[in-house]
Structure formats: C-alpha cells, structure tokens
Amino acid sequence: MNMNVTVTVPSRRVPAWHAWCIEALRREPLLTVRVVALGGPDAPVARGPFAPLTSTVLAPVDVALDAGGLGEPDLIVDLTGAAQPASAPHGVWSFRLDESDDADVPFAGEIAAGRRTVRTILVRRLGGSVECLRAGRFPVQRWYPSTVKLALRETARWPATLAAVLASGVALTAEPVPIASSPSRDGAMGRVRFGASLARRLAGALRTALFEVDQWNVGFVEGGPRRLLSSEPLEVRWLPTPAPLTYIADPFVAERDGVRALFVETYDYFGRRGAIDALVLDDADRVVRRERVLGGPTHLSYPYPFEIDGELYLIPESAEANEVALYRCEHFPDRWVRESAIFPAFDGVDTTLFAHEGRWWAFCTRYSRGSTLALHAFHAGSPRGPWTAHALNPIVVDVSSARPAGQPFVVDGALYRPAQDCSDSYGGGLAIARIDELTPVSYRETIVQRHDARTFGRWNGGIHTVSFTRGRIVVDGKHVYRDLRKLPAAVTKGVRLARRVLRRPPAKEATFA
C-alpha cells in the first residue's frame, strides 16, 4: 500500500546529508513524500579550521519544498534538529549523532575522547515512548572526512529503507535508545582536543601505511564449532612462518577423493595483490605440497568453498573486479573454471553462502559501503540465483560484527555466523553471532561470544577467519611489525588506489531480479 511521508526541515537550505535522505525517500515507489519547511534559519555554513573537512557532507544545498503544512502523514521524518512536536500513526523519526549530537562537527567529542568508534541512531517518537529503530557503529578512520561521510551516507538511507518496509505491510521492531538522550558538548577546549586527536591519528596512519606490515598465518585448534561458544582462549598449532613480506590468510578446508586441501589467500607485498593457493594437508595437518588455484590481474581472497548437487565450487572475494564469481572444480585441488558471476557489477566482500530453512542465503559487505561496516543479505531458491536483496539491507551496521569471518555453523539446532570485529583494527577480533531470526523481511541476531588473539604468541595482532576440518577449527592470526622495504610498495599502492578512485564512476545501488 502507498504511505504518506512528510519530511520537516527548518528551511529550503539543508545539509547535504539531509538532502541525500530526502532523495532516498523520494526514490521509493511505495512512498508519497512531501518536504515542508517549518520556518527557521538556513542550514549553517560551517566555519573554523575544521569546516573544510566536512564540506562534502554538511555543505548547505537547496531542496524542493511542498506547499502547505504537515497535512495528515502516516509518518514524519523530522530533520529540523529541534524535536518538533507532531504526531503520525507511525511516529516521528529523527537522527541522533552519538552522545555529543554535534551537527556542526559530527563526532568531535567522541574523537577528542579517544573513541575508536562512533554511533548514530534513528529515533522514533510514538505516543510517549522514544525508541531506536536502527543503530550503527562506525569506525573512526584515519581521515576525519572519511569517518563523517561513511557514517552519514549510511545513516541517511535508513528512513527510506524502513519506511518502504512499513509500506509493504511489515511491522518494524524497536529497542530502547542505546545512547544518552541529552547533548553533551565541550566548547572551545573540546575543539582543541579534537584537533590534537586528529593530528595524532594522521601521524599514526601515515606510519602504518608506509612502514607497518601485517603478516598473517594459519593454524589449527582442537575442538569443533562448539569450542567457539566458549570464553576459553584458543590454543593454536601454527603452520611455519611465511616468508618476509608475504602471508597466508582466510583459511577454508575441502576434501575430495582422500585429498584434503587448505585454501588460503596468498599475499605478496611486492606483487601487491592476493591470489588463491591450495595447501595439501596430511593427517597431522602438515603441508605436503602447495598449488596455485586462482590468480590474475585483480586481488583475490576469502576462497569460500561449498557444494551444489555434489560438485565443489569456490567463491573468492573479487571486489576489485566488481563481481561475485562462481568457480567450479575441474580437478581437485588445483584446477577451477569460472562458471558465472552470481552477482555481476557488484562489489561484494567476503561473500558467504549457506542454506537455511529451505532457502539459500548470501551474506557479504560491500567495498563501496565500507568493507567492514554493513552486512548485506540476499536470498534465492538456488545458489545460482536469481538472488533477491533482503528488505532491510543492510541487516547489520556495526564495524564490530558486520563483515563475515568464515563458515556459519550449527550447535544444538541454533545457527551461528562468525563475524569480524574491526572496531580496534582491521581483523582485530572475532564476534560469534547467533542468528535468532532470518526471513526475507526480518533479521535478528545476538552476539554470544568474542575472541581475540592475545594468547596467539607471535600472531597476537588479530584473528579474522575461521573454518572447520575433522573436528578441528582452522584460524588465522596476525603479526604486526615494521619493515622499511614496504615503503616502495606502499607508495605504489597509494598511487594505484588514487587513480582507481578517480576513474571509477559513482557507485550505483544494485538491483536483483
């Protein structure tokens, strides 16, 4: 059914990210959207030393207004920032930008306090209650404009997504508001601390980019999936250390005709891209030979194996090629042929397929939406598709639990998914989420356990993938060190990335038939 939405703004001039919110609402076919100015000052033009950092997101722009007052809307989206008193059957929705709720310099208070993540929420006021419809946890990135743009671009989409679900006849779930209800700002000294924090982060980011090397390795833990639900530290038997400036990561195991192979991403800092290798294992998990499986002009990682009608397939992460491709095994473990792209023209990251309650599901993040930030789900009757996007995509917006981290598993009838916790650093930890509800129009999960790598010895810098083999868990671990030999490769990578970004057209929202 069609639903009437009124968006309230103080005047025609609004911050750019509010305009993105209005545009997203107007694109939804089931919504009739009116934008009404309630009277007030134009969106402020940011001033001061931090103004250039937020110009893309907060720059005042004009939006088309509709004549008349509020009318009789089913839903009000309040962008005035003043909690305007109003009522509608589906409530009044508004945004909150973490505890400081600073519209001029978003998240300045949180960053000044040294927080590694910031939060936004979409609040619903209905009757006398104030509830959270959706919340997101975002990383504080190396470059402050990236933090603000990533968080507010994602947040701006939420009213359109949830209003469209309402219009289709599906009820929304809400939770208590997870952050303080009154703004907290810290004046001039807060801005000084904010500036100092930005300077420290930039210096650290430059040092990391130019000199620090993340070296990953793979090892084995006794115990099956149930072991991941325990809080006890994981005791790992590691494979031999990879050669300097190389690593292996993203381990998955498959077996065929008595041969057991560990599929991994192999990365060389001089080659600057990943490839997929198969490490053939003996019964004691020792590597007896190594075969190149997939390699090419673009980066490959996360070689996820699964079966279709008894045949073995791999889905490697190939976001750089802008596709999620399906490879069929012709000869195990070293010969694979590309069969099709199940998601063409789509920058999916770490795509993970599994069957659940008579339906196939694909979970992934997206490179263009923050590769560690927002979990997208798709469903189909067959792993070859056609695939349909989940009505609530993205179903999780949380840098501490969104990105897939390996093979889903079942314990005592409950379905669990491993997820990366990148809130402290990339691949810094592991979250285990119990999937409580998964349908094409609903999703609920509960984080039941977290693991870090503090007990991993040399490889104590992180853990970001798990899989299973013969009653054992396969994990990866990270060692961080400095090496001046990384400098030329880092500079070349930066130039390549800049060129790719400049050439790439704006990302479009993918649709699936």
Key traits:
6 helices; disordered C terminus; 513 residues; five-stranded antiparallel β-sheet; alpha+beta; 30 strands
Architecture blueprint of SSEs:
Layout: E1 3-9, E2 13-15, H1 16-27, E3 31-37, H2 55-58, E4 60-62, E5 75-78, E6 92-97, H3 108-112, E7 117-126, E8 129-139, H4 144-167, E9 175-176, H5 187-211, E10 212-222, E11 236-238, E12 246-256, E13 259-268, E14 273-281, E15 287-294, E16 301-308, E17 311-317, E18 323-331, E19 335-344, E20 348-356, E21 359-366, E22 374-380, E23 388-389, E24 396-397, E25 409-411, E26 414-421, E27 429-439, E28 442-451, E29 466-469, E30 472-482, H6 486-503
Parallel strand pairs: 1-3, 1-5, 5-6
Antiparallel strand pairs: 2-4, 6-7, 7-8, 8-9, 10-11, 10-30, 12-13, 13-14, 14-15, 16-17, 17-18, 18-19, 20-21, 21-22, 22-23, 22-24, 25-26, 26-27, 27-28, 29-30
Task: Describe this entry's structure for a reader.
This protein has 513 residues and is of the alpha+beta class. It is 17% helix and 42% strand. The chain is built from 6 helices and 30 strands. It has helices at residues 16-27, 55-58, 108-112, 144-167, 187-211, 486-503; strands spanning 3-9, 13-15, 31-37, 60-62, 75-78, 92-97, 117-126, 129-139, 175-176, 212-222, 236-238, 246-256, 259-268, 273-281, 287-294, 301-308, 311-317, 323-331, 335-344, 348-356, 359-366, 374-380, 388-389, 396-397, 409-411, 414-421, 429-439, 442-451, 466-469, 472-482. The strands form 7 sheets. The protein has a 7-stranded mixed β-sheet, with helices on one face. Strands 20, 21, 22, 23 and 24 form a 5-stranded antiparallel β-sheet that branches. Helix 1 (16-27) runs parallel beside helix 4 (144-167). The longest helix is centred in the middle third of the chain and has 25 residues, at 187-211. It is globular. The relative contact order is 0.11. The model is unreliable at 506-513 (pLDDT under 50).
